[in-house]
Amino acid sequence: MLAGLAARSAVALRLNYEHPELGSVAQEVRRRTFWSLYLLEDVFCVGLKEFELCRPEIIQLQLPCADIDFGNEKEAATGFLQPGMGLEPERLCARGLFIKLAFTRRSIMNLNRQIYLNEIDRPGLFSAIESLQSELRRISSQIAPEGAYPPTSTARFGLRPQYIMMHMSYRQCHCDLYRIFLSGYPEAAPQRNIEGIKPRDVATMRHRCLKNAQEILDILFYYDSQADAGQLLDFNAAVCTYHAARLVLFGTSSGKGGIDFSMEAAIDSAQRSLDILSRRFAFSAAADPMCEDFSRLIEKYKGLVRSSNNGAFYEVDQGPRALPGVSKAAIIRQRLSVHSLLLRSDFVDDSREAATEPPRDATVEQPP
């Protein structure tokens, strides 16, 4: 609730606009304040329009600059959130890139909902995919050489969580974009909604999805081996890891996507991922439901390996459980936002109790 109040206050103070009359430090403080609220809101709403306050269309603000420029009070042109709003710089800092990736992931999730609800035709689908692919290529080109992965300098790169988060989020965008074609996967689009697409194109997209999922796990393993035990990661890292491991397990068990993995190796990789999440997010109550679901899924796969029932692998992962007490339409709209903290909050809906009629035989005492 305080986050929502802060976001409304920021918009009321017009922090979502540039203020050219201010100095570089004051301008950057305004930018970082608003972009922090934008990312905080992303944790709560996860692309759900009904929860958004910092909507992209109201943001006329440059992205944050690099810490070294901020410390040196240097004015830097960082570009804007959406393309077409001004000149795009050749390079962006990890923080600015992460914000652009958060926006791109929102766009991909909205496209997924449109596909699932059959609200977009085939030409519109391919146009949207091409546009998102182009944006991801543009973001990739803006990564500085020292921020590339795999790193060229372990000592410089290995202990910087912001770069790890950026690369995990970049690959998660690809997973979110291409998993709609991974037929049989819980978050895939219904087959009837993507009929007519060439099998070769579908196979390519499946391969890209699973390849990026495996790379997310590789990045996590690299970070865990390099960083101190107390080094923190954003909650988004747990979300990326959870979905990447699910994709690798599904792709290995179904034989789709061309993953060269045995089922045992995929399970070991998933178990290692869960161990890292349990250790590095032990403080996070928000990650607990995800880790519990992750653990149940791994145990199901282990049980099937022991029973040698290969035919049942395909139906193991039914996806995160839908929240009870909402309509079917709401479940469809919110199906890709199961990690939203607002959806996971234990708000008490007492509508049923409030609507209960009093007993018919109740009598009302008359005053004397």
From TrEMBL:
The keyword Iron-sulfur does not apply. GO terms for cellular component: nucleus. It holds the Pfam family Fungal_trans. CDD domains: fungal_TF_MHR (cd12148). InterPro entries: TF_fung, XnlR_reg_dom. GO terms for biological process: DNA-templated transcription. It is found in: Nucleus. The keyword Membrane does not apply. GO terms for molecular function: DNA binding; DNA-binding transcription factor activity, RNA polymerase II-specific; zinc ion binding. Residues 2-83 form the Xylanolytic transcriptional activator regulatory domain. Keywords: Metal-binding, Nucleus, Transcription, Transcription regulation. This is Xylanolytic transcriptional activator regulatory domain-containing protein.
